[in-house]
Amino acid sequence: MVTLALLAVRRDQVRYHTGRVGPALGYTWSEDTGGQMPAHLRDLLGELLDAELVAVGQRSRAQRGHAVVLTDRGSRVLQEYHTDERCAVA
């Protein structure tokens, strides 16, 4: 599940809302992705933020909310996962 969350962040599918503009607060899907984000995924994204694997970036003018981005550490974790997956398949 962590890997899927990190991939969604890498694909620019996650936004963070501070509640200053509109009723949304916390993590949501980007406007392009749409739909309701499950509570367990919102909780997991909060844990990834605490673990410094993701960060809340600047507010996006193209979409509502702040961009959620991978940190260098989050990128390394995702890269290691993909390396391990390739080794397991080989």
Secondary-structure topology with pairs:
Blueprint: H1 2-10, E1 14-17, E2 26-29, H2 39-50, E3 54-59, E4 66-70, H3 72-89
Antiparallel strand pairs: 1-2, 1-4, 3-4
Helix pairs in contact: 1-3
Question: Can you describe this structure in just a few lines?
Answer:
By secondary structure, the chain is an alpha+beta fold. It has a single domain, classed as Arc Repressor Mutant, subunit A, CATH 1.10.10. The protein is 43% helix and 21% strand.
Please characterize this protein's 3D structure.
This protein has 90 residues and is an alpha+beta fold. The chain has a single domain, classed as Arc Repressor Mutant, subunit A (Orthogonal Bundle). 43% of the residues lie in helices and 21% in strands. It is built from 3 helices and 4 strands. It has a 4-stranded antiparallel beta sheet. Helix 1 crosses helix 3. The longest helix has 18 residues. It is elongated and about 40 Å long. The chain starts with a helix and ends with a helix.
Average residue-wise pLDDT: 84
CATH architecture: Orthogonal Bundle
- What is the string of helix and strand elements? HEEHEEH
Inertia-based shape: elongated
> How many structural domains can be distinguished in the coordinates?
1
N/C terminus separation: 23 Å
Largest sheet: 4 strands, antiparallel
Q: Low-confidence parts lasting 5 or more residues at pLDDT below 50?
A: none
Count of alpha and pi helical runs: 3
Instruction: Determine Rg (CA atoms, Å).
Output: 14 Å
Q: What's the level 1 CATH class?
A: Mainly Alpha
CATH third-tier fold name: Arc Repressor Mutant, subunit A
Estimate the helix proportion, in percent. 40-55%
Structural class by helix and strand composition: alpha+beta
Strand content: 15-25%
Number of strands: 4
Instruction: Give, in spatial order, the strands making up the sheet with the most strands.
Output: 2-1-4-3
